[in-house]
Amino acid sequence: MKIAIIGSGGVGGYHAGALMDAGAEVHIVTTSRHVAAISDRGLIVHTESGSRTYHPASVTTDGTGVGVCDLVMITVKLTHFEESLENCQQMIGANTLVLTFQNGVVAPDMVAKRFGVEHALPCVTFIVAFIDGPGEVRQIGGRPKMLIGSAPIGLDGTYPILEEFKDALLANGVDAHISPTIAHDLWYKYAVICTMGGVNVLANATVGDIRSFDETHALWAKSVKEVQSVARANGVHLTDEDCEKIVGELDNYPEASTSSMQRDLIAGKLSELEYLNGALVAKADAAGIDVPLQRLIVTIARLHARRGRVGLAS
Q1: Is the pLDDT score of 313 beyond 60?
Q2: Domain annotation covers residue 218
Q3: What is the pTM of this model?
């Protein structure tokens, strides 16, 4: 397999190592500081079982020289997604699949719009991994999990390359599965993210604080129900049992948990708001669905972003 990985953060770096362990030809496209480090001494991946150093087939800031690939994995955040699509233009052949791993549900549509729906393959990953320095990532916690779409959304057919990809990951530390219900998987995770991320920002509090106060705790169920209504309008049936399960999962998060969007706003960074809760409001408007809580979340988060500061209440 010839695989290009766009981004060398926690998701990209960890899976690059796993795929190189499987013998795949891996090319990494990333920022200049990571290119310099990986070119100099390799990609270093730390896990709880030890550290490994990997040497990809190439590492570059410019994907034009990589050539056509079997798979292109885009692992950057949505705030850098459009520029990543530009960078992988020359990698896309007639049978290339572009695998998306972003939060939310807009990334596959962005790939389909640029390259055609037949190239857009959604995936969902569950991993705790982060950058530990230039060209260096650290994965902690349990075994990472990945759900790989069985085919581009709306299309049928078999894709032997995906079985090869899944088997390579399974053999090298990733609990990988082919999912025929990837649209449902995406929306389920989207409901978790919009709810935890949105309510945390709205309340300016940790998960434990929200959970300890009945009136804020009730916002989780309200948020999930709003996502459910928009999902159903988009042809994805999130069940009432799904909604209850999501709230139950949040009830078991560590008390000090904060969301990625919340942390970005606290740090003054550009957040994924417009691609997450913002996109949900846009989809609701298009379907004529009222989502007052999501609209309030977006309004407050935009204010925080405009002010350039937000902090946890003490």
Answers
A1: no
A2: yes
A3: 0.94
